[in-house]
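Exercise 3.2. Students should predict the tertiary structure of the chain below and write it as structure tokens, then compare their answer with the key that follows.

Predict this chain's 3D structure.
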Amino acid sequence: MRAVWWVSAVVLIAMGVFFLSVPVRRGIGAQASSGGIKGSNYGLGRQFRLGIKASPAIVQADLGRFLWFVDTKVGQVAISNPGNAEASVSIDIQGLAQDDEGRLRFIPATREIASALSVSKRSFLLAPGASCNVNLTLDSGYARRRDSAGLCAALKVRCLPSSSYACASSCVTSPGIMVPVLVRLPGNSENCIAVEDVCMRADDGDGTNRVRIKIRNEGGAYVVANGVLRLERKGSSSRDGGVLGFQVAPGLVLPGCSRWLEAQIPRNRLRVGDYEASFEIEANGKTGLKSSFMMNVDQSGRVAICVP
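Answer key:
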């Protein structure tokens, strides 16, 4: 009898251990594959990624006026988190500059710019895959100014792990992004551009000749400049092709800055001889300037600008 009781006890204990062990295994499995990212997952080797995206990548706004009312709504930027961890997002106002190749540089904002441009949200949390719309507005007093034609600034958008992920040693953070903001004020649409220089760019090895025109924006608002380069071979007739036209690629020019614009002439497009060259540059769709010069094409097909 004792033997039967002892065997029954062993069987019941074994069954109890089996049933108790099943939910424990299931719990660990669910925790490891869960889409939710919790602190208990850190020990399982999962890598957390933080990222940030903005759309549009650049904000351009021409403010309008109705009688005495000025529309101060600059635009809206959608900030999204493509990572797999919750992000703490912060936005600061930066200044904007430009080099002569058109590359934008971000600099500390002046007090005037920092107070003129405002955002609806300076800091917020973004869950993985979520997005948030940030509205941009201009100070009404600045928008009505007569001594200024526009404003150029940038949003510095940074993200860090939220407090829920701050202790995760495997969290990969993003350096952040910059969003340029370009605003033109109403009633200040005059374009003031000038030519600083004209030259040929060194051959990149593909045989394309590149005529470069350096444009300076002497106005107070941003401009988008483009144009046409026209070439007419001296002594040619209409049967020889007449006037050839080549597009000057468009480029953004910030107020007070200069940058190179470029027209490309394909290989073997020009015959040997002298050419009368002229270009017409537009800024924001309006003709801003015209200029002319002489060019020469030698036997090897090399193009040079003739300096008087």
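Discussion points: The chain has two domains: 48-184, 193-306. The helical segments are 2-33, 111-116, 140-143.
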